[in-house]
Design a protein that fits this description.
The chain has 1 helix and 5 strands; from the N terminus they run βαββββ. It is an alpha+beta fold and 88 residues long. Strands 2-3-1-5-4 form a 5-stranded antiparallel beta sheet. The two termini are 23 Å apart.
């Protein structure tokens, strides 16, 4: 599965975090690529943005392609080990 979103630096992250708080967004989807690079799947993303953190992970990420300096679209592949969705 692909995790898709806009790539940017920590300065843009802080700006968006404030913007989302000001707009009272309940949901936003950030993932860190490295300490100075993040992906935001809030505006541009797919169903993979709903994957949550887990203390018992069932997936791993692999970076594919190259990020675009100053922003752009980026792909991460998620490799699932067991269930993707769980419903009780």
């Amino acid at each position: 599965m692909e995790y898709v979103g806009e790539v940017f630096d920590t300065r843009e992250f802080k700006k968006r975090r404030k913007e989302y708080a000001r707009d009272m967004r309940d949901h936003f989807y950030f993932m860190a690529l490295k300490s100075d690079q993040l992906i935001d799947a809030t505006r541009m993303g797919n169903i993979s943005r709903f994957i949550n953190h887990s203390c018992d992970p069932n997936a791993e990420t692999q970076k594919v392609g190259k990020g675009i300096r100053g922003g752009g679209v980026f792909l991460l592949l998620l490799f699932l080990f067991i269930y993707f969705c769980y419903y009780r």
